[in-house]
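Hey,
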Amino acid sequence: MPEPTQINFTIVADDQPGQTRIYANFCAIAHTPFDFTLTFCEVLPLSEKDIRDAESHHVVRAPVRAKIVVPLQFVPNLIAALQEHLRVFSESAPGSDWPKGPVH
């Protein structure tokens, strides 16, 4: 049986005209034995009524901007890539006091 041939390549995002960026400042994460679901939401500033409702019902509703399901095998590479980008970002802005904890 011949050995498999290794091909090195780079994947480049193919942005299509009309595509829009989606802003999210909250991500809920769920998983099954097979995949992870990342649900990105936009949490807007809360009104006084929203705060009262949240205090009594312990729920804040936020519109879902994107729901992305990725296979389990994809998650370690995603985490590593995020950590690497965060490291590079941190080193490029020494002394900056950007928030390191959760926003919400």
